[in-house]
Every structure is written in C-alpha cells, then in structure tokens.
Prior knowledge:
Blueprint: E1 3-14, E2 22-33, E3 37-42, H1 48-55, E4 63-68, E5 71-72, H2 79-85, E6 86-89, H3 102-112, H4 117-130, H5 146-158, E7 164-168, H6 176-193, E8 196-200, E9 212-217, E10 220-225, H7 227-231, H8 234-239, H9 246-256, H10 268-276
Parallel strand pairs: 3-8, 3-9, 6-7, 7-8
Antiparallel strand pairs: 1-2, 1-4, 4-5, 9-10
Bound molecules: adenosine-5'-triphosphate.
Amino acid sequence: MNTMIEFKNVGYIYEKHEGEDTLAVDDVSFSVQEGEFIGIIGHNGSGKSTLSKMINAILFPTSGDVIVSGINTKDHDRIWEVRQNAGMVFQNPDNQLVATLVEEEVAFGPENLGVDPKEIRRRVDEALDNVEMGDYKNKKPHQLSGGQKQRIAIAGILAMKPKCIVLDEPTAMLDPSGRKEVMDTIKRLNKEENITILHITHYMDEVVDADRILVMDNGKIAMEGTPREILNQVEKLKSLRLDVPQITELAYNLKKENLLASSDVLTVHEMVDALCQ
Ligand SMILES: Nc1ncnc2c1ncn2[C@@H]1O[C@H](COP(=O)(O)OP(=O)(O)OP(=O)(O)O)[C@@H](O)[C@H]1O
C-alpha cells in the first residue's frame, strides 16, 4: 500500500499581532495509507481544522513537513498538484458553492486545472452520477437541500480526480437525512473508488466504521487506533471532553451496574448479542 499523507513532526503557530501566539498543532507525526478512512475527533479548538488545512496546502507548517502523495506541501511549484490530489470539503455548504448552475459548479475545478472542455463535460457527468445528483445538473445550487449542496461540493472535488478528500465537519449544519446522504456518499467513494478519506466530526457515530481514529487534544494526537480500541475507552474520552456513541455509553453504564458482561459494544447488533449472552 502507498502512503497518501505523512506528517513529520508538524507544528503550526498562529501569530498574533498583539497578545500571545497560539500553538494550534504541536509536533504531530502520523501517516495515512492510500484507501484508508480516517476519523478525526477532538474537542473545540483541539487543532483539527488547522491540521486538515495543512493537508490541502491552505496552511503551511511552521515546523516539520507535510507530504501529500509524495509531494512536500512546502514545494510551492507543486501546490496545485497537492490541492488536486487532496480536495477539501468544509462545514458550510453555502460558502463553498459559487456558480449559478450545478454543472458549472462541478466544472469549476477542472476548468481551473486547464482540462480539455470535452473531458470536463465527461467528468462533470461522472462526478454527478457518483454522488447520485445526475438529475440536478441544470438546477441552481441555492435551491438544493444542505445534504445535496454538500454532495455537489464533493462532486466538484471528484471532477478534479483527487486521491484523497479531507472533510472538515461536512455534516455539522445538516439535518439527519442530509447527514446520512453525505456519510453514505463518502463511505461509498472510499470503498468503491478507493479514495482516501479524512473525516473530521463531532458525531461519534460517524467514525464507528472508520479504519482508524485520531483523537486530538491541545494540538497533539492524544489517541490513535481502530474504532474499537478508541471508542471503548469511555473514561479517557470523557476526560478529553468527548462523547462516545450512545450505544457504547449505554453498554458502559449497564456494565457498571453489572447488568452486562462486557461494554465492548459499538453497534445495535453488538448490543443485542451482549444482552443475549
Ligand atoms: N485564524 C486563527 N488565528 C488565530 N488563532 C486561531 C485561528 N484559527 C484557529 N486558531 C486557534 O488555534 C487553535 C486550534 O483551532 P482549530 O480551529 O484548528 O481547532 P478545531 O479542533 O478545528 O476546533 P473546532 O472543533 O471548534 O472547529 C484554537 O486555539 C484556535 O483558537
């Protein structure tokens, strides 16, 4: 497997003109393999967004190196290659969509990359089909639901043929059905198109199926492991001001009351099994 992203002793400091500087990311090292689905969680201000913006070369490390698909983001001649390899989706869909029509929106990225118009048309159709929005090609983005707008934002990235997509709380402003649409889309892109996903979220249930979870605290990676290794550590997560999935919390409380043999429960199915034992 190829390494998609590598952080080598990365630090990021926001310099203030007055007052103190903020060390938002503090000596972070980790790597992500091609095709992985990584969940990134952490309380407000723990450094998740700053970390993610360094992958897309929006921010550059103040110390250490970020390597994306073999390219150091400090290599200014190759910034557009980095941005094309690692697309980014943000929290507010309204801030990301600029065009009057959905198809123009999706074409925007490849146009900027100088892709041939015929190929752009092919990519737009393919990307819209991929997020199940093919029928909305000629609609106006502002007439769509939040979940649909986020899927259009994802299609705009897909049209640039990325290897990786970084999503910074893409479901935070969506209702439950919008959240499901977006989660189903990114899981499918990961499984079927082998696109590496880094998904930042405050919703623990969105990282239960991840290959790996990184937990951030005070600019550092406080925990790293599979969902089972991480999400069962209820006390530790609470000390990091994080929730656990509701079903895991219920299992934890039942175990405390000696009503359940094990609190190793991440899904409803596992809860049913644990109750039947
Ligand atoms: N533009 C900025 N200028 C100065 N400080 C900043 C800036 N952006 C973020 N910070 C600070 O850097 C630290 C990390 O912020 P960051 O946004 O990366 O955290 P986060 O984990 O993404 O938070 P949230 O969950 O609230 O989005 C915080 O202390 C924050 O106040």
